[in-house]
Amino acid sequence: MVSLPAVNQPVHRSGALLDHLARRMRVRSEAVLAPLGLRPRHLVALTVLRSRGDCTQQALAATLEMDGTNIVGLLNELEAENLIERRRSPEDRRRHVVELTDTGAKQLAKVEFALAAVDDEVLGALDEGQREALYNLLLQAARGMETSCASAIDAKPES
Amino acid sequence: MVSLPAVNQPVHRSGALLDHLARRMRVRSEAVLAPLGLRPRHLVALTVLRSRGDCTQQALAATLEMDGTNIVGLLNELEAENLIERRRSPEDRRRHVVELTDTGAKQLAKVEFALAAVDDEVLGALDEGQREALYNLLLQAARGMETSCASAIDAKPES
DNA sequence: GAAGATGACTTGCCTAGCACAAATCATTAA
DNA sequence: TTAATGATTTGTGCTAGGCAAGTCATCTTC
């Protein structure tokens, strides 16, 4: 009976709320990002890159759950601003390894600092501790998936 | 010195991660929702409606942070499926009060149940307790804003 | 009661984000 | 050498959504 503990309780899915809050954040973020030449998608890419470190372009596409061709365009824009760099992989020179530049890391930190007002608006109902808890949960969830698909793609030395 | 505790620490903004995870959820949800004639946007609307209860169409637009004209179309679709109902407001007959129908509530619960696999995939790195914590934080954040803008719009009797 | 403001609705137009397909080029694997 | 793979480019199409204009019903104000 331990396996069915929540049968009579409402199911709690975070998907819709995640979507809802993400939108509210995104709408407000656009105004903050625009003057810096960035859009929300760029911020997501940079954030993911910082979280997982250098990674293959394909791995990034898989993590962002985006089509490879669109990743190219996204990275082109980021590279034009010197926020990321593409290096050829030594093991397989067809591959590009994407890495966050120092400029990129600094810019990311700067942007996050500038987003304080957005956080205050959208997460106003949460106190500092709760916001930190939320951040850590999101980060843990995001990281959990990175490893699972990165290892499946990046690792191919033995075959 | 208590007032500046985080000056030398990285700033933790949830926006980008929220966006990232929401996308992963959304992409997967589409496959689950499609057979039921729903899309992610419908789920968000229903979820918000359940969370805040009946509300003015304008208040809903404000909460969803969406253009009024698009809300009309969204509600048309939901009403066609009998998931929501529009009633004239007794106080001001120009207004529509939107409410979740019984059918809508049941459908919502059913859909959430069906989204278990999606949650497992995207939030796989979180245990049950953490997922519940995440849900509660998101709900609290979402509710915090509802009241703030609902009261500003709904309440207009005195002028 | 008349005139203007307001809420919902409709239609039309336009943009952004993104998926998908096809073709090219460099590189690696068989 | 031939085939597969990774990145890139270009083109096409779809969906979400913003924005504007115009209609109708209702409320408010004078």
Radius of gyration of chain A: 18 Å
Biggest interface reads: A-B, 55 and 55 residues
Secondary-structure element string of chain A: HHEHHEEHHH
Oligomer: homodimer
Sheet with the most strands of chain A?
3 strands, antiparallel
Mean pLDDT of chain A: 89
Poorly predicted regions of chain A = 149-159
In DSSP terms, counting alpha (H) and pi (I) runs of 4 or more, how many helices of chain A?
Answer: 7
**Protein structure class of chain A:** mainly alpha
Give structural notes:
The structure is a homodimer of 159-residue chains. Chain A is mainly alpha-helical. Helix content of chain A is 63%, strand content 8%. The first copy, chain A, has 7 helices and 3 strands. Chain A has helices spanning 15-33, 40-52, 57-64, 68-80, 102-114, 116-122, 128-154, and strands at residues 55-56, 84-88, 96-100. The first copy, chain A, has a 3-stranded antiparallel β-sheet with strand order 1-3-2. In chain A, a hairpin with a 7-residue loop joins strand 2 and strand 3 (96-100). In chain A, helix 3 (57-64) crosses helix 7 (128-154). Chain A is globular, with a radius of gyration of 18 Å. The N and C termini of chain A lie far apart (44 Å). The relative contact order of chain A is 0.13. Mean pLDDT of chain A is 89; it is low at 149-159. Chains A and B meet through helix 1, helix 2, helix 5, helix 6 and helix 7 of A and helix 1, helix 2, helix 5, helix 6 and helix 7 of B. Chain A binds a DNA duplex (30 and 30 nucleotides) through residues 39, 41, 56-58, 66-73, 76, 86, 89, 92-96, 159.
